[in-house]
Write a structure and sequence with these properties.
alpha+beta; about 120 residues; globular; 3-stranded antiparallel sheet
Length: about 120
């Protein structure tokens, strides 16, 4: 049974992900650390908006940041992100009993269908 405190933490993290711009950020960060201006350019959003989104995700416990000179580099916290194989999946975010799998190919129509093992 899931305790209320665990459910609340999962809800906070999932709510932080439940926004289109943040999902796009997740896709890019799953490929590796990026600094704020790189993410802003990749996602096509102003720096101030990017900083807000990253702050929401950091507060929810998804991200950690590190100063690199005048830049701030963001990455997933290692306790919530597991790197994928790079071909089918970029990685998996783990939030309590929930998993968010980040596929390497964001177009499901182009993804290779899984083959069933022969009996």
């Amino acid at each position: 049974m899931m305790e209320f405190a665990d459910a609340r933490r999962a809800a906070v993290v999932l709510a932080a992900l439940a926004e289109p711009t943040r999902l796009r950020i997740v896709f890019h960060l799953a490929r590796g650390p990026h600094h704020v201006s790189q993410l802003a350019e990749l996602v096509g959003t102003p720096m101030v908006n990017m900083s807000h989104h990253l702050g929401v995700m950091r507060t929810a416990g998804l991200l950690e940041d590190e100063k690199d000179g005048r830049k701030v580099v963001y990455r997933f916290r290692p306790d919530v992100f597991t790197t994928g194989d790079g071909t089918e999946t970029l990685g998996t975010l783990s939030v309590g009993p929930f998993r968010v799998v980040i596929r390497a190919n964001d177009d499901p129509a182009k993804a290779k269908p899984k083959r069933k093992a022969a009996n």
